[in-house]
Amino acid sequence: MGEKKDSSADSYNVDKQASDALYHQVIMDRHGVLFMPGGTPDNTFTIRTTWVHWEPGFYAFVAAHPGQADLFVDVISPTGQQLDRIGVHTRQGGISSGGRMRGALQSAGRVVNAYITDNWFCAAQ
Description:
Layout: H1 6-31, E1 46-55, E2 58-59, E3 64-65, E4 67-76, E5 82-92, H2 97-119, H3 121-124
Antiparallel strand pairs: 1-4, 2-3, 4-5
Helix pairs in contact: 1-2
């Protein structure tokens, strides 16, 4: 980022915030009831996502390379113990780097939704 112009850095930050919001929205749309307040503290788990790598890819008239996002998703018990960790790798093509980023994070949200549905009995109901 230090080598980019201020306008490029600002654009990247806007894209990252929009992509992060889209990722969370995809999960909330499918499993929002799991994240509602009011549960008992001893039955409250945390899903912690860490976005560890972004390769923006490129688009040119003669060639293209998809953007790629890598995330870790940790499930943390009420006592703070890590119960599970999944790695998520998504790829997304598109004309703009922001579009590739949003698409990759939207796909990551769908992967996390599948994980929740497949592994949490309460989510399958």
